[in-house]
Amino acid sequence: MTLATFVIQLLNGLAGASSLFLVAAGLSLIFGVTRIVNFAHGSFFMVGIYIAYTLTESFGRGSALGFWASVLAAAVAVGALGFVVEILLLRRIYKAPELFQLLATFGLVLVIKDATLAIWGPEDLLGPRAPGLRGAVSILGRPFPEYDLVLIAIGPLVLGLLWLVLNRTRFGVLVRAATQDRDMVAALGVNQAWLFTGVFALGAALAGLGGALQVPREPAQLFLDITVISDAFVVVVVGGLGSIPGAFLAALLIGEIKALCIGLGDVSFGGFEISFSKLTLVVEFIVMAIVLVVRPWGLLGRPGGEPRHAAATEPPLRPLHGYLKLAAAGLGAALLVLPVATDGYVLVLLIDIFVFALFAVSLHFLMGPGGMVSFGHAAYFGLGAYGAALLVLRAGLPMETTIVLGPLVALAGGLLFGWFVVRLSGVYLAMLTLAFAQIVWSVAFQWDSFTGGSNGLIGLWPPAWLASKSAFYHVTLILCVVAIVALRHLVFAPFGAVLRAGRDSPLRADAIGIDVRRHQWFAFALIGGFAGLAGVLHAFSKGSISPETLAIARSVDGLVMVLLGGVQTLTGPVVGAAVLTWLQDEIARRVEFWRAILGGVIILLVIAFPQGIVGFIRGRFMREVT
Amino acid sequence: MAEAMLIARGLHAYYGRAHILADVALEVGAGEVVVLIGRNGAGKSTTMKCLIGLVRPAAGEIEFAGYRTERLAPHAIARLGLGYVPEERRIFTDLTVAENLEVGRRPPRQGLEPWTPERLFRLFPNLGEMRGRPGGRMSGGEQQMLTIARTLMGNPACILLDEPSEGLAPVIIEQMAATIRDLKAHGVAVLLAEQNLHFAGLVADRAYVIEKGGIRYSGSMAELAADEAVRAAYLSV
Questions:
Q1: Which of A122, A167, A327, B208 has its CA 20 to 30 A from that of A297?
Q2: DSSP letters of A403-448?
Q3: pLDDT at position A619 over 70
Q4: Which of A252-266, A429-443, A588-602 has the lowest mean pLDDT?
Q5: What's the complex ipTM?
Q6: Which residues of chain B neighbour A242 with C-beta distances below 8 Å?
Q7: Contact state of A176 with B150 under an 8 Å Cβ cutoff
Q8: What φ, ψ does residue A216 adopt, rounded to 5°?
């Protein structure tokens, strides 16, 4: 790489960092004050770029004034959207547990995605280039777009403006105070509701501006919401939660490293070919993993910057009541004889439900008794699935052995990643699990010769004795039930009790001689194995797997299942898995805009049942059953 | 007693299943200094939090300045003129002294001379010398002064002071007592939660003794000082 290309790549990195910083700054502000991890922040970015597309197409082709006014108007419009969302939705759920808020914002992602699809259609839309900035300047003899130079300036400009707002206005002082202690701010007579609305609208407008500024550089596309939100999460976590300068620094760092990877391309080191351009998909997650291990609170964050009020203390878990045990046994028996009475399709749906019930129960074990919220649980599901598939296809092993070996692959992954993960807690822990999941995903996605790349692997059929749907159904049912019951026992076994003690009070647990971290590590690995079993069964039930098997969406599905059912109950995840799997299947088959409906249902459920479905039933009807 | 401005009747409060307050009743008159005295865990702080709305009482009524407040949000109660100084001080440690005061600022209240930072710095000269210092880099006594000053910026007609003497050096405690007497002279009513009988004696007109979440005694400070039996039963350690 010559000096000129190097410099150009550095400048590219700076230009890319600006939009990233705007989105991340908004996310960080919102989290700081409201403690809501806003999954829909990437959606605000996406809406920003779509609105800017429409406005600049009409007003921004001819005049520079029209272009920039359109960009600003798009940001304001997204701010207004944030305003409405806060008032209609978030206001109702500030008292709900943090994870439910996350779930509600995820419902919002789905709704906004389908609304965008309905308004702008599925095509990629590339807006006009900025009038007056269509040319390029020559830097070291190479052309560099003028517009990108402006973008490079906008990042520090917005950072400066935000600093002024936060330090020189009453609104800013209140925002900083509320970031530290919301209740005290309220007790001093400040109406938090409007403060939250203001912060949310401001954060949304920043995301919208970040999107609008990209209009001349990249087309408006429907998948931007998810890619942008995961980038923004990474930036916020690397910079330190709640730190705006940290977000700026992290955006620069990640923007530069990505640009350099593209610039380096394929390099060979002593015979090894390393494709740096392929690394761009994961490099930010690698940076995040390194930063979190070295500085668990981010570059400019502070230790102990976690929410002051952690989760409300969980009531002790209760074993199933006698009648319910009978009911569960009855249901199990009914499911066993079901294939006699029904056709293939119901069995296929039920197999999915069993597999996802196991997946959700394993995630719940981690989140509930383990106290570790994972945003990357799909990695272990996928490791199991890919492990089994590769053993069958590449090593020629029979399927039966992979039922044991597949989960062991996932367990090994859990051991490796878990060692890092348990060093953190809370949101940081969740982000690191996401980072590892993304790394696993990108390996599966890019290693064409081994994992099949984006096409995945096909031709995974069970042996003859399992070829009929009902035989496979029975095996799946039995394995999943056994695994779920085993996990239930584990919750009440000494191992589970130790985990719960470590979750509720790590210091006290340490003080009575429990090595909390080691128990968490083993739990993380073990749970990886259980998720892996679900993955193996999934792979053989479908006959093929693709990188979708371990994508973010799968991890989010798991979270939605657990949260829908209720974190504080043991039956919750099973119910949540059944409801979500059925809903996805049922709605997706019949309706065009199924995402919006699913998102709407999720939002309504969160508003109606902030304790989850099973939590609600228990609170309502089973108060006396102990 | 002057006309009552803060009245609580039959307050009950729970943390989960633990019954923390059982039938607490008290009154504070305009311009009066009243102490709620009791041991650790007697329910003093919970009573204070119920009055400002940070803990929702399960039953009972609260009246402040003629409004029923037991269902109001904390900010609405504060705006009616009830100030709250928490036990843990809860200074905004990232904000400077001047910014801490800014958070507390509310419009002037009729009949009371409005508090400004300048006027507060005359009352707390130490604070005036460290306006630009972050709250996290102050001593405990200075932080205690700052919390009171911050609450006064809201121009309250009555303030709830939760154990202001806790953890302070004797000299600072004397200053604190002088401050409370100053507030009274300015027409601000004070409800003080304390376990330090000596400190309460320096400032309070009347006392309620609280024990296990219930009011066990009420009377003037002089009567309490004379009542050996009550002091032995509820206040001796």
A1: A167
A2: HHHHHHHHHHHHHHHHHHHTTS-HHHHHHHHHHHHHHHHHHHHH-H
A3: no
A4: A588-602
A5: 0.92
A6: none
A7: no
A8: -80, -10
Domains of chain B: 31-53+82-235 (3.40.50.300)
- Nearest CA-CA distance, residue A438 and chain B, Å: 35
> How high is the pLDDT of residue A170?
96
Under an 8 A CB cutoff, do A189 and B104 touch? yes
Q: Supply A560's token pair.
A: 């939605």
Q: Quote the percentage of chain A above a pLDDT of 70.
A: 94
Name the closest residue on chain A to residue B76, using Cα atoms.
Answer: A189
A620 pLDDT band, cuts 50/70/90, is low
Please state, in angstroms and as integers, the Cα–Cα distance from residue B50 to each residue in A294, A449, A459, A554, following that order. Answer: 44, 66, 66, 44
Contact B54/A at CB under 8 A: yes
Among A120, A117, A93, smallest CA distance to A105 is for A93
Q: Do B75 and A180 touch (CB under 8 A)?
A: no
> Which residue among B94, B150, B151 sits closest to A176, beta carbon to beta carbon?
B94
Determine whether the interchain pair A177/B103 forms a contact, defined as Cβ–Cβ distance below 8 Å: yes
- The count of domains in chain A is 2
Lowest-pLDDT range of A282-296, A470-484, B179-193: A282-296
B92 and A CB contact within 8 Å: yes
CATH number of the CATH domain containing A90? 1.10.3470
Q: Is residue A579 part of a domain?
A: no
Residues of B in contact with A179 (CB under 8 A): 94
Judging contacts by C-beta atoms under 8 Å, the chain A residues touching residue B96 are none
A554, A574, A599 - which closes a domain: A554
Question: Quick check: helix, strand or coil at residue A138?
Answer: strand
Tens of pLDDT along B39-90?
A: 988 999 999 999 999 999 999 999 999 999 999 999 999 999 999 999 988 9
Taking the C-alpha atoms of residue B30 and residue B14, their distance in angstroms, rounded to an integer, is 29
- CB-based contact A180 B93, cutoff 8 Å: yes
For residue A251, what are the contacts with CB-CB under 8 A and spacing of at least 6? A17, A18, A20, A21, A24, A155, A235, A239
Q: Give backbone dihedrals phi and psi of A428, rounded to 5 degrees, phi first.
A: -65, -40
Rounded Cα–Cα distance for residues B31 and A94 (Å): 37
